[in-house]
């Protein structure tokens, strides 16, 4: 590996860590403002009713769910809808970290929420702005310029 390749790898790793932190910050801020829609079906319903309010779609999956054909079909349909409506899409792994960021824990006899699809909405009132959203949007745009239409990010356990 050449020096240029080592520097490029280090820069990419720093960028991924920065974007990962921005996603986590964005999720916390959006949750505080009630600007999150969680769940595949809930997300599909919202995009059908008010697609203009959606600013980011997170599709979360870990290796154990990769073979879930129904989930893959849902993801394909959601991705197509997001592309048609100019909604940034980010595919992430690290479901445990995602659950921790959203404050999801083992609840007494409660069914865990479906975290496979999360929409970040921007209320029409414009009551909040997020630096994390700007950073994630920039990352998505840069990825599309590099022909990576659905960028991937791994959330790291802390």
Describe it for me?
- It is a single chain.
- Helices cover 49% and strands 15% of the residues.
- Strand 2 (54-60), helix 3 (69-84) and strand 3 (88-93) form a beta-alpha-beta unit.
- It has 158 residues and is of the alpha/beta class.
- The chain has a five-stranded mixed β-sheet with strand order 1-4-2-3-5, with helices on both faces.
- Helix 1 (3-32) crosses helix 5 (131-145).
Which features does this protein show?
158 residues; alpha/beta; 5 strands; globular
User: Per the principal axes of the C-alpha atoms, what is the gross shape?
Assistant: globular
- So how many helices? 5
The rounded distance between the terminal residues' Cα atoms is 30 Å
Major sheet size, sense and barrel closure: 5 strands, mixed
Approximate helicity band: 40-55%
Describe the strand arrangement of the main beta sheet, using strand numbers: 1-4-2-3-5
Q: How large is the share of residues in beta strands?
A: 15-25%
Specify Rg, calculated over alpha carbons: 16 Å
Give unreliable regions as ranges: 5-9
């Amino acid at each position: 590996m050449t020096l240029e390749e080592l520097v490029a790898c280090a820069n990419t790793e720093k960028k991924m860590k920065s974007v990962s932190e921005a996603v986590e910050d964005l999720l916390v801020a959006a949750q505080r403002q009630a600007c999150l829609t969680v769940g595949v079906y809930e997300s599909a319903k919202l995009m059908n009713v008010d697609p203009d309010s959606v600013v980011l779609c997170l599709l979360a999956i870990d290796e154990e769910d990769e073979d879930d054909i129904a989930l893959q079909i849902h993801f394909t349909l959601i991705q197509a809808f997001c592309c048609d409506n100019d909604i940034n899409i980010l595919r992430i792994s690290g479901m445990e970290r995602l659950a921790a960021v959203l404050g999801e824990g083992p609840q007494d006899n409660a069914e865990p929420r479906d975290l496979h699809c999360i929409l970040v909405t921007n209320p029409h009132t414009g009551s909040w702005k997020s630096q994390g959203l700007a950073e994630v949007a920039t990352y998505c745009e840069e990825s599309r310029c590099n022909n990576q239409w659905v960028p991937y990010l791994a959330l790291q356990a802390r």
